[in-house]
Amino acid sequence: MAVLLLTLVTLAYAGYNIFIRFSGGHAPAGASTTIVATLCLQAGAVLVSTCFLAFLVVQGGHSFRLTTPAYLWALAAGVCIGLAEVGYFYLFGGIAGIRPLPASLVVPTVVTGTVVVALLVSWLVLRESISVAQVLGAALVVAGILVMFLGRRAAIA
User: Fold this and answer.
1) 113 shares a domain with 93
2) Would you say residue 80 has pLDDT above 80?
3) What is the pTM (predicted TM-score) of this model?
4) How far is CA 123 from CA 112, 116, 128, in A?
5) Overall average pLDDT of the 149-157 stretch
6) Is 1 exposed, middle or buried (0-12, 13-18, 19+ CB in 10 A)?
7) pLDDT in tens, 15-38
């Protein structure tokens, strides 16, 4: 069951990344911001979460109470994803003088970059142990990102 859920979450996250690219690619030449598209994205997320909440309420037997720190960390995560969404739309939409970047560069950089950042935070802040294989994998990710950028220097100038 965990593998199925992991697969569904991966596909949903991939859809999130690709659909932002589609949306950003449709920004008209005269647009000065993509913030309304960001709000649309967030409205979609609220709709899905509200439907799931309604399903759980109807199903019954669930406790919805969390600790204050759980809510505050969730809020911090929401701020981070909101900032990422705004940035994504600007990267893909070519708004505010930023040249639009291809999804084939932006999405792999962001997604694999989060792997490296998460590994570092897990080790430095959460004090989780990491293996040599994980460090090697992170180094390969960084090398891969560098290779991707070196091959597309003109696209990011």
Assistant:
1) no
2) yes
3) 0.79
4) 17, 11, 5
5) 66
6) exposed
7) 998 999 999 888 887 888 889 999
Q: Which two tokens stand for residue 29?
A: 């030449």
Do 107 and 94 lie in one domain? The reply is no
User: What is the tally of structural domains in the chain?
Assistant: 2
Straight-line distance from the first to the last Cα atom of the chain, in angstroms, rounded to the nearest whole number:
45
54/89 same-domain check: yes
So what's the pLDDT on residue 155?
A: 54
Residues 6+ apart with CB under 8 A from 30: none
User: Which domain range does residue 155 map to?
Assistant: 102-157
Same domain, 30 and 82: yes
155, 96: one domain: no
Both tokens of residue 133? 């294989």
At 157, the pLDDT band (50, 70, 90 cuts) reads low
